[in-house]
Every structure is written in structure tokens, then in C-alpha cells.
Amino acid sequence: MQGAAQSAESANQGAQRANQRLDQVEGCVQRLESSPRRVPRG
């Protein structure tokens, strides 16, 4: 069962890293949306 615990731990670390990246992206999107748009989207 030790191998399963290790793989679960590494999967958990990967999920945490993905969450941090998602937070960064959402922060960038919020900054872009709050700033005046020079180029209209679309």
C-alpha cells in the first residue's frame, strides 16, 4: 500500500500546483477585465 500512498501524494501535489496556476490565471483575467480595454475582444 506504500506505493499507492506515494502516488496519491504526488497526485495531490500536482493538483495543488494546478490550483496555484489557475489562481494566477484568474488574477490576470480579473486585472485585464478591470483595466480599460484598448482592443475590443472578438
Explain what this protein looks like in three dimensions:
The protein is mostly helical and 42 residues long. The protein has one domain (1-35). The protein is 79% helix and 0% strand. It has one helix spanning 2-34. It is rod-shaped and about 55 Å long. The mean pLDDT is 88.
Per-chain topology:
Elements: H1 2-34
What does this entry show, briefly?
Residues 1-22 have a biased composition (Polar residues). With 42 residues, the chain is mostly helical. It is built from one helix and no strands.
Give keywords.
single chain, 42 residues, mainly alpha, 1 helix
Based on CA atoms alone, the radius of gyration comes out at 18 Å
Main sheet specs = none
**Helical proportion?**
over 70%
Structural class: mainly alpha
- Record field, number of beta strands: 0
